[in-house]
Amino acid sequence: MYVAYGWPKLLSIDSSSPQPVVHVSVHSGWLLLVTAAQVQVWSAEQHTTKLGQFKRSLISREGSNVCAIWSAKDNTVAVLTSESYLHFYRIQVSEKQLLSSIHNNLELPLVSVILSISVDAALYSRTVTVSCIAGDEFSIILGLSNNYLRIVSWDGEVLGVSDVLDEFVSASDTSVLEASTVPVSPSGLVHQSSFPLSPRLPIIPSPSRETRVHKPSSLSQLQVSVELQLLVAIFTEGVVALCTINEKGPKRCSEISPERWVGVVDASCASIAHDQQILAVGTRRGTLELFNLADGASFLRTISLIDWGYSLEDTGPVSQIAWTPDNRAFAVGWRNRGLSVWSVSGCRLMCTIRQGSLSNSQSPAPGVDNERSMSEPMVKGVALLAWGRYAYELFAVERGSTLRFFEFRFAKSPASQSIAATTDAWQLMHGADRVVLVQSDESGDSKNHHLIIPQPYIWDNWPVVHVSGNEDGSYLAIAGGKGLLLHDLQMKKFRVFGDVLQERQVHCVGVIWVGKIVVICNYREKSNWFELCLYPRYHLDEASLLCRKQLPGKPIAMDVWQDYILVTCSPFDIYVFKVHIQGELSSRNTATVQLFTVRELSIMSTRKFPVAVHFVPNSGPWREGFKINPWDSPRVGPSIYHFSESPGEAAMQPTRCVILRTDGELSLLDLDHGNERRILTGVERFWLGDYQAKEETDLLKEDPCWAYGPQGMQVWYFPSNANIIQSPSVKQLEPELDFDREVYPLGISSAAGIIVGITQRLTLSGGIPLPCFEPTPQAQPILPFILWHLLQRNKSEEALELSKLSEGLPHFSHSLEKLLFIVFDAAMSSQSINRRRGRNIAVKRTVFLLLQQVCNLIHNFPEYLDVLVSVARKSDSRHWPELFAVAGNSTTLFEECLEKGLYRTASCYILVIEKLEGSIISQHCAVRLLKATLEVSQYELAGELVRFLLRGGRESEAQEEEVVRYENGLVSSLLELSISKPGFGDEQNLAVVKTALEEHVSLLMRTLELRKLVAFINATHFDFNAFLRTERGTAARLEDFASALLTAGQKLFIRELESFQELEFLLSHMRTVGFQEWIALLATLLRQVEVLVETFQGDKRVWLAYKHTLQVTSVQYTCMDCPYLHVMSFLYCLIVRNCYGGDLVFSVVTLYAIKMSIKCPTSRVHPCLRSSMRISLLLLNMKCQRQIYHINQSLFCTHIVLFHHLFQALVLM
């Protein structure tokens, strides 16, 4: 699995004389880049740097370069020109070195590119041209324009010319070609795979008079696979032919033999995955068709961006396909726009096209360099693709551009890493210089962390090759090209070999953990053998080496379970070792560690080599009834036992292992007898649920196998019945986990009860024009599928105990909901099938038995009510009677929700009650729930209930006449709605709703809950103005203005902007109705003098009451008890001045207000405020006696303003 990370790097080719790039490939750490007139060699490892080049003139008679091919055997490059000349270049390493300014020891040797031979590939015939080139390390195959093949050696010698393709084309009439477009069903996979075949077929236009397939006229591309002895020929008309060749490459024309046509007629390019035996064919429709070469080129699946909203007009035809070195993923480039990376199963791992820009019309026109082209890589299409040596880099050349050469960085998680290198705490991926750790925390959220390898280590040992974590996830073992690095995740410290010479002798080809011991599979260059080296995690040194064990061959895969190590060596030899420790292993105490061989098996089979192995723990009844059967049994060599164990220890040995082979076959191997059974095919990765040393062990009794492939994530349980193992059935597969096709699973987190996956996200930053690729983790619960497995086998008690153990998981509620939905959906599907087939009622009872068990299980948890109604809402309402016939009466469940205070859940049950028991009962329940929600101030829910009840009344009225739409608000509609012939109970319900809402508003006004009043009006769309005009509304008066002012100020956080907005909202309603006393209250709180002046001028009685309240209550309350009295005092002064005018009257009333305020105790008043009051009092006395008329009026006004600000400061204290 591969995922892109970070910003793509833009490489500089040659800006002085830009030329189109015609070839890009990576070989042995070198990047070969061929332009129209240059051959460049770059370093493709730690630093992408140009090491050497060769330039020639574009105006030469040989023409410009058009394509090239590399021979890693003798470092020779063959370049084909536009005039059918073949140039051979030798790559020689120079003695000069390119020194790095970052690291002194990092020296890159320069290379010399020398033109050695130039050959006329057309043999001086200008009527026939060379259209394509392919080859291997033995010879070069040239495709001619007349469908002939010419074989040339790497020395330029012409070995022969073959017309077998032309004869094959002539012998195949158009009917044969048209018949080849029909996809062949891979019948060989039907009996091998437990996955059902993908129903998706290649979209191939049916032959007609307009689209009839013509005979191929010329070749456009050749692909050679020596491993598969295959030659793929693509013609300009879009048809593809398969030919067999010699196992050492075609040296003579007679060694090429055409075999068949591939089922596609609009091919644009092709690429072969040797290990997977898959042919990927890009089409002119923008899709990619995969064919199984192991089964006669039968169709596998279609890869396309159509499901993501991109059409042919957006991307154009497929222009490039590049497989990773391990054939686990491939990159696809389109001619018009976009680059993406896919897994073999069809999971989209990476894409450069930004989501939301679906139309190619938004893409920049050719030759236009605008902001969009800079912010999206490959926006003009892909010209060339090449993966790096370790697939940590993907090199891509943008089409139509001579300067846009990108390097994308990738992190990967190999198939073998899913076995021994993951922990329950972390899921691991590694890039060239980092380890990406994906973790699921206690809340169920997943996050990733980039652990950057220290530069002193990575400079000398680039890149990271192997990563492994110990069982508890506290330590990581990281191996580069040489040496080993241990990282303590808790202390965040690294540990390396102290001696550099010892570090250079470590060539790690595999690493695992056994408790506190790190086990390295090391390759000794001097002695040319492989060995197991055991080091303690607290010290890396030859002096602290605990044990060393030589291996007979190169290891392929490794695994560990408890104290047992499994090593698979080439070709397929299995060795099981036991680690025996005597003493305590610590930095203070010395312990003796021995490694004993307990099993040796030599498997002789025609199957593919394994890429991953995994011990199957002896937690289930494995030894019961497993008999040797010659069916599908490979030849097994003698089993050897070198270590005598006690009967108890021998019983603890793992006797089974699961094997994943390169072709995706998953099988179960009996280590006692060598009997192997095929489980699945088409598997990319797999995981075994490890429940050892946990409470779940005694409950499951069986180990689930999680397999990921073309059909998504599926579960397979190892049963104890031998007959089932001998005859695997699709029924053993659980329902697939609905992972999105752009989320790739990384592993199982048993602690969190989830499967952790990874997907790609694109982010843009302001300073960098190119987007950043961010791996984003996602999770999927696994508990529902384990419970499904137990209930299906009538293990209800075990399922209940497992559920109680998992109750604390963050995804527990979602898991129960998923379980019920899966079983209910399966029951409804089975019922529909049985109904069509006319089966009896006994079958129906059997189908609903599992549903009853699931409901009984969920009923033991408080989430039962929420889970049940959530599943109902996601299901078709036609099936609700079946669900609640098993789960319980809907009205009873509603009453239970009402009793427990689950009002939101209860509101969901009202819709179910309306569907199952009628509208009368549902409206009665809604009225009860409305009253309950009003008591607890859940106004949003109350508003939904009011709308539901109003809908019931309007539906009754609509039976006789059209519903009239009112504009005065919801409650006004409730009050004025006249139903000519209402249904039974509708009129009563509407009256009850009206009464309940009005009583609640009256209560809020009496208790001065102004904030709740505003929330209630907004949520329920209550017609507040109409209510205030009613008798009940006018009765909502203020008994005591001062206490009301104090209470309202305390309940409202007047300093918040939201509180001001709420008061202004109420004030506008009160002014509309003319509710004077509430206007005075709200305007005082808002300090709106203009509103008070307008109110008092309109009604002198309110003015007298306002003045009287101020005079009376100023004596009763201190300034700290009711700070709003000071606000009233100041407002009172301003109002008197505005209403009656005159400085004298203003001074008198202001003097009186200050005298009333200054009577407060000295300890309650701020000193600065008291001083200001006394100064104001002195000034006002002098002004009133007309003794200081010459005082500056502006100074006096300024002091009054200061006095006002001081009062406000006191209010805000």
From TrEMBL:
Residues in coiled coil: none
Domain of life where this protein originates: Eukaryota
Subcellular localization, as worded in the UniProt entry: Membrane
Classification via Gene3D superfamilies: YVTN repeat-like/Quinoprotein amine dehydrogenase (2.130.10.10)
Key words, A-Z: Membrane
Family annotation (SUPFAM superfamilies): Quinoprotein alcohol dehydrogenase-like, Tricorn protease domain 2
Cellular compartments per GO CC: cytosol; Golgi membrane; Ric1-Rgp1 guanyl-nucleotide exchange factor complex
Cross-referenced Pfam families: Beta-prop_RIC1_2nd (PF25440), RIC1 (PF07064)
Entry-linked InterPro entries: Quinoprotein_ADH-like_sf, Ric1, RIC1_C, WD40/YVTN_repeat-like_dom_sf
Residues covered by the RIC1 C-terminal alpha solenoid region domain: 786-963
UniProt name for this protein: RIC1 C-terminal alpha solenoid region domain-containing protein
